[in-house]
Amino acid sequence: MSTAIATIEAPFMSTGLPLFSGYDHKIADLSEEAIRFGRKEIELAEHEMPGLMALREEFAETKPLEGARIMGSLHMTIQTAVLMETLQDLGADIRWVSCNIFSTQDHAAAAAVAGRNNNGIPVFAWKGETLEEYWWCTLQALNWGDDVAPTLIVDDGGDATMLIHLGYEYEVKGERPDPSTADNEEEAVVLQILADVQDAKGLRYWHQFAEMVRGVSEETTTGVHRLYQRVEDKSLLFPAINVNDSVTKSKFDNVYGCRHSLVDAIMRATDVMISGKRAIVCGFGDVGKGSVDALRGQQAKISITEIDPICALQASMAGLDVITVEKALDDFDIFITATGNKDIITADHMMRMKHNAIVCNIGHFDNEIDMAGLEAMLDTGDVQKIEIKPQVHEWRFTNTTHGPNGGGHSIIILAEGRLVNLGCATGHPSLVMSASFTNQVLAQIDLQENAESIGMKVITLPKHLDEKVARLHLAKYGVELTKLTNDQASYIGVGQEGPYKPGHYRY
Question: Least C-beta-crowded within 10 Å: which of 56, 101, 388, 432?
Answer without folding.
Answer: 388
